[in-house]
Amino acid sequence: MAAIRTPKKNLSVNPVKSSAPMGAALAYLGIDGAVPLFHGSQGCTSFALTLAVRHFKEDMPLQTTAIDEVATVLGGADNLEEALINLTTRMKPQFVGIATTALVETRGEDFVGDLRNILARRDELAETKIVLASTPDFSGALEDGWAAAVTAIIEGLVIPGERRDVPLRQINVLPGVHLTSGDIEELRDLIAAFGFTAAVLPDVSGSLDGHVNEQYSGPTSGGTKVGDIAEMGRALHTIAIGHHMRPPAEALQGLTGVPTTLFASLTGLAPVDSLVTLLSHLSGQPVPASVKRRRSQLVDMMLDGHFHFGDRRIAIAADPDLLRSLSLFFGGLGAAVVVAVASTGNSPALGDIPADEVIIGDLGDFEAAAAARGAELLVTHAHGRQAAERLGVPLLRVGFPIFDRLGAQHRCRILYRGTRDLIADIANLFIAVRPEKGPADFADVLAPMPAPPLEDMRHAPIATC
C-alpha cells in the first residue's frame, strides 16, 4: 500500500486539480436541456467557463448568481431567486443544476431551505427540474463535485420505490468524470452487443461530443433526458465506474433497489473481462464474436507493446480514480510508477496505487519528483506541458483540461479497443524519443573481417559443415 504524503508549503504552484464546482458543472452539462448555475461571484463562473470552453472547443451555458459584496454579507437568497427566474424566462431549460462555491459556503447559508422557499412561492419555476449540490471550492476536486452533482440529480429526479416487477432491458451506467465522450460511446456499444439499452447518467457523449446543431440552443443539446432519469429504477442492473461514483450508486440503489456493481477501472484486460462476464451473465447470452475479436486484438497489442514498457519510469499526476487506473495499467505492462501525484487525498482509490508513495500536491511537486527520480514519461493534463519541456521527456495528456490539442473528448481509453489504442499511443511516444536502431548503428558489428595472409591460409585446416 502506497504511503500518502502531503507536502507542507504555503501555496500551490500550478495546481493539478480543478475545483469541485467545475466537476458539478460538467455533470450538469450531461443532462439534455440543462443549464448549470454557479451560486457565487462572476469570477468563479468565468474561470470554470474558460477551462470548459478551451477543453471542449464549444460554447457552454454556464450561468452565475453574481454574488457581490452586499450579498456576501447579507446573504445570496435573493440573487439565487432572481437568477432562476431570469434563466427560466430567457433560456427555458428543462433542468437547472445549482453548484455552490466557496464564497457562499463560507457564510454558512441554508441553501436547501432557500431553494425550497423559492420553489414554493414562484409558480413559474414549477415546469423546470431544479437540483442543488454543495460543492465548495476549498473541499475536494473535480471528482468530488461530479459525484455530488450526480447524487443530487438522482435524489431529486429518480422516482423512488422498487419498480422492477417488469424490468426494462436496461443497464444504468454511472460514469466517472474521467470518462470521455468516446469512452461512453464505446461502453454503450458494448452493452448493446448483449441486447441491453444503456441509461447513462450523466451522458456527456450526447451533449459534449462536439456536434453541430441545426439551430442554436441556449441549454445543452443532447445528454440524458430528464424522463429517462426518472425511470432508472426499472433497470435490470447499475454499473458505476470509479470509486468517486460510490455515493451516487448507493443513492440510486437505496431509492430503487436496483443492484449495483462498481468497477474501479475499465482500462486493462482483467477489469474489462470482469465487465464482459457480468454482461454475459445478466443477458444469459454468450460473449459475441465481435467482442472476442476486440479482446484478441488487445492481447496481441499487449504482446507487441510490452517490449517498450519494461522498466520504464512513469510519472503521473491526476485525480485519484484516473491516477489509480493509469498506475495499474502501466504496472501491468512492466513499467514502474516512480511518481504519483493526486489532486486530493480523500479517495480510497489511492491505497491501491502501485507506487512507494502518493503525493497530495501540485505540478510543482510533480516536476521536482519526476526530475529527481528520472521519469521517462509524464502523464497529466495540458498544464504539465511546461514541465515536460523543461525535463525533456514526452507528455501523455490525460484528464481535464486538455486545451492544446484537438479531439480530447473523442479519445477512448477504456474497454478492449481503448486499452489497445492506449498501449499503441504510449509505445509510439517511447519509440519517437528512442528510435529503433538502423543499419548505420551496427556498422562496427557488420564490418567485414580482414582476410588472413595467404601463408596462413595454406596451413589452415579444411572446414567441414
Helix count?
A: 19
The beta-strand count equals 14
Count of the domains: 3
CA-based gyration radius: 26 Å
CATH superfamily of the largest domain: Nitrogenase molybdenum iron protein domain
Q: What is the structural class? A: alpha/beta
Main β-sheet: number of strands, strand sense, barrel status?
A: 6 strands, parallel
Regions with little confidence, pLDDT below 50 for 5+ residues = 456-465
Oligomer: single chain
Helix content: 40-55%
Q: What is the topology, as strand order, of the major beta sheet?
A: 1-12-11-10-13-14
CATH third-tier fold name of the largest domain: Rossmann fold
Q: How far apart lie the N and C ends? A: 59 Å
Q: How much beta, percentage-wise? A: 5-15%
CATH class of the largest domain: Alpha Beta
CATH architecture type of the largest domain: 3-Layer(aba) Sandwich
Average pLDDT metric: 90
Q: What overall form do the CA principal axes indicate?
A: globular
GO biological process, one term: protein-containing complex assembly
Family: Belongs to the NifD/NifK/NifE/NifN family.
Organism: Oleomonas cavernae
Pathway: Cofactor biosynthesis; Fe-Mo cofactor biosynthesis
